Amino acid sequence: LGIHLVENFNQGILNIICCDSAKQADRMQSIFKDLSPKICKILNDKEQELPPNNDLSQVFTPLELIVHEGYLDKDKKVAIYTDHQIFDRYHRFKLKERVKKSKEALTLKELSGLQPGDFVTHIDHGVGKFAGLEKIEVNGKSQEAIRLVYRDNDILYVSIHSLHRIAKYTGKEGEPPKVHKLGSGVWATQKAKTKAKVKDIAKDLIELYAKRKTQKGFSFSADTYLQNELEASFIYEDTPDQLKSTQDVKRDMEQEFPMDRLVCGDVGFGKTEVAIRAAFKAACDGKQVAVLVPTTILALQHYKTFAERLKDFPVKVDYLNRFKSSAEQKKTIEYTTNGKVDILIGTHRLVSKDVKFKDLGLMIIDEEQKFGVSTKEKLKQMKVNVDTLTLTATPIPRTLQFSLMGARDLSVIATPPPNRYPVETRLSTYSEELVRDAIQ
Length: 440
Hints:
The chain is an alpha/beta fold. The protein has helices spanning 2-10, 22-45, 83-86, 108-113, 186-214, 225-232, 240-253, 271-284, 296-309, 326-337, 373-382, 397-405, 432-439; strands spanning 14-19, 61-64, 71-73, 78-82, 119-122, 126-138, 141-149, 155-159, 166-168, 260-265, 288-292, 317-320, 343-346, 360-366, 387-392, 409-413.
């Protein structure tokens, strides 16, 4: 490609390499600059014209622009290349940013989706049942209104112009709410108690953040060249949520107080890739990483994934589970104690007394809710002054509650990767053919 770019340049063709990000554009220039001596030697042996100043990065223009495929326009003398084609990566069309809307106000679209009997909440009157739209007379004029039914079949009509005062009821799944009685004052009392509770939570949060700021941890370095290389080598394009989660985690790691972040996302949404990047960042600073998973099979799967992604980098990845013999486990523990293992993956075996880390800097916990009480208590002791990243697809209420309250920072990966197939669950009798098809 380098020789081809020089040949185009010498023929007066403008070479443009389109990159999905400014970081990738800078990386592209750096790569071709490093390749300059090798390419210039080949061109010199062929007695062909060399690039200006023997610098390959001067024969093309990097451009931050998302283009699906490159092309050559001979008439206008322009050659377009794309970074994902150069590195043979899967490419996505640019995902549209989700339009943010009010989390509470009911929209006309949502109103049309309501069914009679659905629960709704009125900001002044509390929970009632939606009973459809009805035309009523107001000051001699006919207008459409929302009909809400409250306890004792009391009726409340809400003008379409007051739609912002109604929200679709959201609460615990499987538990229908209690319908309020109009004019009883119960709803006003509940609102007052809730406001007081929010103030208490805010006070607790201020105290909590003050304590976290004073608790010193390890401040990891900014991204290195190797970190950029690892992230650029990912064969898929990051989804917006995945990219933001990665940035959130790395920003927390670079702070001087310990990280405690929960990354929540469905299966296959890219949580593991976020964890790999965080683990590599820690390893680049000479810190060890412990990756705790709830099952033996998952430990082996994570090991294979981590090892495959990091095979081209100077990082030692190992694992501990019952599939290993006693001798193999002893050797792994010895290497971990001596600091020869950078990333150790395993089940609750990692919190055993005989497993000691030379310099633990990051702990990654996958599906924390599946660990037993004793394991969680040991994890609390290990977490002191150690950055902690928790991954989950189904957060337990307390874990999620801590995140929403601010005791833990929360990142949500809600954007599915392109062409991602949904999880398919089947219930059937045992069939070897079905098992074989599922594995393949």
